[in-house]
């Protein structure tokens, strides 16, 4: 990764550097004009929605640690009950921005996750840190991995097993579908899938409403702690250092509040860097998130996996090589075009789009790399990559680099009916 860095101070960020009496277009910031000496945020208070999950940490800590104040903002985190609520309030303008699902934002951009709205991804909030949990009833039937699950499902009538994810176009739906299909299980023909809000996953499994679920932490660890389920795979085992939640808003909000959007991104970016800076900071973050206002759970339920210390409920313990990461010298935070394009390939694969998208064009429209770079320059000391694309190898051996998304989407043996070409 390139170590190209900017040297813009926070004072320059807040005050601007235009000549008195003039104004100019900021290079790379679409439709925005900086008035002389006045690039301060248009809004002093910003309401940011979040779901009670460990990966909301950068949003919460930006407010708790006062990083928002450094950039002229008061960040107001708003706890929401479901991703559908986040979506509805975001597009209605009740939320300025949100801790959001990558696939939900792309689904809104394309009009398949709700009414079509032009959206903006300001930065990635985390990599890794989700999991697929199976109910202990399956463990009692000697189902402990994908192969044994496939055999068990094949022995029953189609639709006998129910799996939950968090939203129709969510990251969790894509991880669940990808993992099931790799095991020879068609997620649309062989099993039943339902949408359940993250905080309700464990209770629904306890009630016997599902055989498995895919969700973010701490709810997978909570299933183990409550002795109702076990982790059959983590999402970082499916795709090491995969993109997960993003800081999202509407494109119109960015156009109307470009300085606020930049300041918000800078504050959350600095919080992400702070969290990843030390184990002590991660422990402090876990202690904060466990509080009633945020996730409302035991600290130990959060802390272990936040530190990469895993157990799977089957007697195995390990230090994960790809734990939940929030910064990683900027590699996490950068809104890679290829990350967004991957979710589009999966929406295409599963027949969730009316026609094949222009993958790169959609990603360039949604992922606001221009604004991210300006925020990174304000924070200072953040590495920027030489390319807007990155290459990854998933657990099935497939290499994803964004170079041929249409062929990639069509390369899987299990998929739904092909969408029409654009």
UniProtKB/TrEMBL annotation:
UniProt keyword Signal present: yes
TM region(s), chain numbering: none
Gene3D superfamilies for the chain: Periplasmic binding protein-like II (3.40.190.10)
Location within or outside the cell: Endomembrane system
A Pfam entry, by short name: NMT1_2
Protein keywords: Cell inner membrane, Cell membrane, Membrane, Signal, Transport
PROSITE patterns per the UniProt record, alphabetical: TAT (PS51318)
InterPro entries the record matches: NrtA/CpmA_ABC-bd_dom, TAT_signal
GO cellular component, one term: endomembrane system
Family statement: Belongs to the CmpA/NrtA family.
Name of this protein: Nitrate ABC transporter substrate-binding protein
């Amino acid at each position: 990764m390139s170590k190209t860095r900017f040297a813009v101070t926070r004072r320059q960020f807040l005050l601007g550097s235009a000549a008195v009496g003039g104004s100019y277009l900021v290079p790379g910031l679409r439709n925005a004009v900086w008035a002389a000496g006045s690039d301060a945020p248009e809004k002093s208070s910003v309401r940011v929605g979040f779901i009670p999950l460990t990966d909301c940490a950068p949003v919460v800590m930006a407010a708790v640690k006062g990083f928002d104040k450094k950039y002229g903002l008061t960040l107001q985190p708003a706890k929401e009950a479901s991703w559908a609520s986040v979506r509805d309030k975001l597009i209605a303008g009740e939320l300025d921005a949100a801790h959001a699902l990558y696939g939900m934002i792309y689904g809104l951009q394309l009009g398949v996750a709700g009414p079509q709205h032009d959206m903006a991804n300001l930065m990635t909030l985390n990599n890794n840190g989700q999991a697929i949990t199976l109910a202990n009833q399956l463990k009692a039937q000697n189902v402990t991995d994908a192969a044994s699950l496939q055999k068990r499902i094949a022995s029953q009538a189609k639709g006998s097993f129910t799996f939950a994810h968090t939203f129709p176009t969510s990251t969790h739906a894509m991880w669940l579908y990808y993992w099931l299909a790799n095991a020879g299980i068609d997620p649309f023909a062989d099993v039943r899938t339902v949408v359940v809000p993250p905080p309700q996953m464990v209770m629904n499994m306890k009630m016997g409403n599902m055989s498995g679920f895919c969700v973010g932490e701490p709810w997978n660890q909570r299933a183990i702690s409550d002795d109702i389920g076990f982790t059959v795979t983590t999402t970082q085992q499916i795709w090491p250092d995969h993109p997960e939640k993003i800081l999202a808003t509407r494109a119109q909000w960015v156009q109307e509040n470009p300085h606020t959007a930049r300041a918000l991104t800078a504050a959350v970016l600095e919080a992400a860097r702070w969290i990843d800076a030390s184990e002590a900071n991660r422990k402090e973050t876990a202690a904060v998130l466990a509080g009633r206002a945020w996730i409302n759970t035991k600290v130990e339920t959060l802390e272990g996996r936040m530190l990469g210390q895993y157990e799977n409920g089957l007697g195995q313990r390990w230090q994960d090589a790809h734990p939940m990461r929030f910064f990683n010298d900027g590699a996490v935070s950068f809104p890679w075009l290829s990350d967004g394009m991957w979710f589009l390939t999966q929406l295409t694969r599963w027949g969730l789009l009316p026609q094949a998208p222009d993958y790169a064009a959609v990603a360039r429209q949604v992922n606001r790399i221009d604004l991210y770079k300006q925020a990174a320059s304000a924070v200072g000391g953040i590495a920027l990559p030489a390319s807007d694309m990155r290459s990854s190898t998933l657990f099935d051996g497939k290499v994803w680099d964004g170079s041929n998304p249409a062929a990639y989407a069509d390369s899987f043996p299990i998929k739904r009916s092909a969408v029409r070409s654009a």
